[in-house]
Structures are given as structure tokens and as C-alpha cells.
Amino acid sequence: MIDGLETKLPDVLAHFGIEGNLGKIFEGPLITEVEFQLSHGAKFSNVTKSIKDIARELGVSGIRVSEIPNSTYICFEIPQPKAQTIPFQSVTQSPEFVNATYALPICIGVNMRGLPIMRDLSKMPHLLVAGTTGSGKSVGLNSFILSLIHKLKPENLKFVLIDPKRIEFSMYNNQKYMLRPVITDMGTASQCLVDLCREMNDRYEKFEKTMVRNISEYHEKGYNLPYIVCVIDEFADLIMFDKTVEKQVLMLAQKARAAGIHLVIATQRPSVDVITGTIKANLPTRLSYKVASPADSMTILNTTGAEDLLGRGDSLLLEENGTLTRVLGAYMPNEEIMQTLEPYRCAIKEPTQSVEVHSSNSNVVINQTTINHTTVAKPGLFARFADWWQRLGKRNQNKIINWLFAFVVYVIHQMSGSGSSRRSSPTGTSSQKLLKKGIKKIVQK
Ligand SMILES: Nc1ncnc2c1ncn2[C@@H]1O[C@H](COP(=O)(O)OP(=O)(O)O)[C@@H](O)[C@H]1O
Ligand SMILES: [Mg+2]
Predict the structure, then answer these.
(1) Are residues 369 and 414 both part of a single domain?
(2) Model-level pTM greater than 0.85?
């Protein structure tokens, strides 16, 4: 805490004509929370207007002020001179995490008083994450993945990890938890979302046959069906590459919860063309790390404030009921992540193993791996063609379609007009020239 804060703050506020009484002070790992009761007639808007100058007078940057709900106090959040780092282990060893009975417990971090914040991903039921580069998104995503790995066995949980940057998730390759290797190629990523939608529909058919409504009821009947968590670490890249992924994401966001398929989507650009209105409406739980502007904060949280966060895991969690909680993410260095994952490394690549499991004729085992391995793990001819087609991109696809079209027109013309062209009437020759010109134009496109 800043030395002498309890006397300095009321003094500084008085300089700006803000009178009132100091309330309780809580010292946390990232900030000191100071409660303050404004005197009668003092306006909260005057405080928010002067907050940058108040911060300057106190010699710190990034002070936030908010009203405490159902209270006459306001709360100043004043950064600590030196922020603490919260080790991931300290959260996973806490009684809150150890005793959590959630289906998919994820550790978001600690609140501003240092208490662990756990949530159940299966209830969220999906999570949208935003923040500028270096704000702590990837560290956060890793801590969500690792908290799930801490609590669930590989046969009960499978991950699909999409990582266009290629470096963030590479350590998860060849893990028993992986449904397929980490996806770094955008074409494969959009195909994989199509596969997940198909998997979701397959699961609903299974539920229908066993007369259950969701995955937990299915588990109660004695079947084992793994939860699938799909994590995308740069959704902006994916949606810019292929607009149609929005359709798949929406379908999964709307319907996949009961099938046990959950999405965690992160983006460094929370602009309206990436986080569209429909995506927002279907992903009510959102976590914002520091963003570049108040407009970005509005897009992700429906309120400003995330632009004033301090970075390095400092975040605001917006939940379905509208509550906003400031959370400091837990941190685990890469070497420790590798150590944690070591016991789950598989000698044989996971997809090959899954195909073998699939071919064994035990009912429960088949149910355990409902994932359509012909498309997800070992793609068939059509899936490979679709994948190749996706990777070509719109421009090359159009070129090929034009070539094919020109070829078909040429063949039809040859077959129907060859007789007349041999007679070489003047009209026939000119029409042939016209056709050739047309074909040339199409091909040049
Ligand atoms: N919760 C945290 N606690 C401490 N340091 C953090 C935390 N989160 C991120 N950092 C620091 O910030 C750096 C960038 O984080 P990263 O997750 O890679 O950002 P992003 O993915 O948003 O670009 C990390 O290398 C780490 O040093
Ligand atoms: Mg990152």
C-alpha cells in the first residue's frame, strides 16, 4: 500500500472539492481498496471526472473508482506499488478448488481481496475472453485448461485447441486429453468446428435413444461420454479467414451445452466485426483483460472500465446475471506446465489410439468416443477434399470454378456446334470467336 494513503487520499480529494469520510481499507495482491462516503450533496460524477488528476497527485496510474451496490460508499481501487503474482498452485491447493464439486471447474484467479474465484464452465456455459497483446489472455487460457486437467481424467475430458500463433498451445500436443493435435491452420480449424457441430448432433441422437436430456443424465445411466472443451486463442484471425465460422460458433453456443461441448473463445480485437451482436447474445459470460479503448470495453463488457486495468492478468469477469468482478489471474511458468502435463503424455498419437478404441466392440467404449473419428481423427476422402478446398481461400476457389465453367461451356459448344463450324459459315466463325473471347475473360478472372 502507498505509504500514508489513509491521510493522503482525503487530503487530495479535498483539493478537488470532494469531501467525505474514509471507510474501510482492504489491502489485496494487486490493489488497495479504499471505501469512502461522500458528504451530502457531493456528486459521484465529480469524482470520476477528476480521477486521473487524483491519481497523478497520489503518484500512481490506473486508479479506478466505482459505486458499491446497495451502499452509501464508493470504492477507490488504488494499485499497489508492486503487484503480487498469484502462483497457480496456490489456487489449486485452496479448499475452494479442492472441494469444488463442479462438472468443469475452472480457476479464473483471485479477487481483489486474494480469495480464489472458481467457476463451473458447464454452467457458464461458454466463455468469451478479450484483451490486448500482453494483457494475459494466453496465461489465462492455460490456467483454465490446467484447472480442468487437475480435476478430470483424460477419459472424461477432451480438448480441441485452436492456436493460429502456433506457440501458445504446442505443449499440449500428444496429450491424452487431446481429441486431435493442436490446430494451427485456419482451414482445418473451420472444418473442425463443422465436425464439432456434427458431433453435437450425434450426441443428441444418442440422448434421444437412451431417453435422456443432457450429458449428466447420460452419465447417470452408466455411459461414459467425455466433455469436449474447444479453446480458440485468436478468434479474430479465424473469423477474418472464414466468415462462415460464425455460423458454427453460434450453433455450438446455442445448443452444445447439454451435449457437453463448451467453447472458450479469446480475441485481442474485441471490435464489433469480430464480436458480433449475435455472438455476444449467445456468450453471456465474458472475461476482459486490459483493452485498448473504452469502445473495446463497451463491446466486450457493455460498460467502460477494462481500458483502465493494469495488465498482466488483471481482468473483469462479467457473468450471466450482470455482476462484474475484478479478478487477478493465476500464473504458471511454462516449465511447470510441462511438468504437470508429463504424466499424460501418450506414446502413441491420441487420434490413432481413438480409432483403435472405436473399433473395439464394447458398447460403453463406443459411447465413450462418440467423436466421429472418420472425420475428426482420421479424415476420409471427402473430409480431406473439404479441408483442401477450405485452405485454398476464396480467390483460388473462384478461379477453379471459373476454369471448370469455361471448360464445360467449351465441351458443350464443341459437341453441339462442331458440325456447323466445319461448314465455317461467317456467323459460325464470329460466334466461335465471341465464345473464345468469353472463355478467355472468365479464365483471366
Ligand atoms: N496472471 C499473471 N500474473 C503474472 N504475470 C502475468 C499474468 N498474466 C500474464 N502475465 C505476464 O504477461 C505476459 C504476457 O501474457 P500473455 O498471456 O502471453 O498475453 P496475451 O496472450 O494476452 O498476449 C506473460 O508472459 C507474463 O509475463
Ligand atoms: Mg496470447
Answers:
(1) no
(2) no
